[in-house]
Specification:
single chain; 186 residues; alpha/beta; Rossmann fold; seven-stranded mixed β-sheet; 6 helices; globular; binds S-adenosylmethionine
């Protein structure tokens, strides 16, 4: 990554493909980890009630604020996950998270975009542990995972947290398989 924020890649394209058929009209949407703003933009183009988007990286916040400046019904917040959010509930929460396994802490914003912690699922688990407080009862969470991560442990965690999941899209790259999952309360 030669930019200071995450530029769209295969995972971003797969995520966009997975949400292509979703109807976001009049919905409240939260995007965690906005990066360049491309996913939030797609949501904003569909007349949602509002989009709140978050990134811990100030360069991503700056870039996406610029990118989405034509839209009114949005708020872009610099935050470590939910830390700086108001207590409000969303119909959809989207997160294409840092998902590659490594136990080393990110050294900079570039590494933060892809270093998912132990088993590649630590950031995701931290996100999931708080996400129900921000999700409407009928709401859905959409996440991306890689088979390089500890998928079995993630599945156990989803079960423990009371989430059901279904596959929305998948893609096999030459070194990993990416999947986009939709979660809801069971
Ligand atoms: C894989 S990138 C996805 C970016 C963009 N949504 C896309 O699909 O192209 C993950 C994003 O999550 C952000 N991120 C990582 N850890 C975070 C945290 N604890 N809180 C908020 N954002 C975080 C990164 O800065 C990065 O922009």
């Amino acid at each position: 990554m030669n930019k200071k924020y995450y530029s769209p890649r295969e995972d971003t394209s797969l995520f966009l493909e997975a949400i292509e058929e979703k109807n976001f009209e009049n919905k409240k949407i939260l995007e965690m980890g906005i990066g360049s703003g491309i996913i939030a933009k797609k949501c904003l183009e569909e007349n949602p009630k509002k989009v709140v988007a978050v990134d811990k990286n100030k360069h991503a916040v700056r870039k996406s604020r610029k990118e989405l400046s034509d839209f009114n019904n949005k708020k872009i917040i610099k935050s470590d996950l939910f830390a700086n959010l108001n207590q409000e509930k969303f119909d959809y929460i989207l997160f294409n998270p840092p998902y590659l396994p490594t136990e080393k802490e990110p050294l900079n914003e570039e590494e933060r975009a892809w270093k998912g912690g132990k088993g590649g699922i630590e950031v995701l688990k931290r996100f999931l542990s708080e996400s129900k407080d921000y999700l409407e009862e009928h709401g859905k969470i959409i996440i991306l995972v890689s088979d390089l991560g500890d998928i079995n442990s993630l599945k156990n965690y989803l079960e423990k947290m009371g989430f059901e999941y279904k596959l929305l899209a998948k893609e096999k790259l030459f070194f990993e398989k990416l999947s986009v999952l939709e979660l809801k309360n069971n």
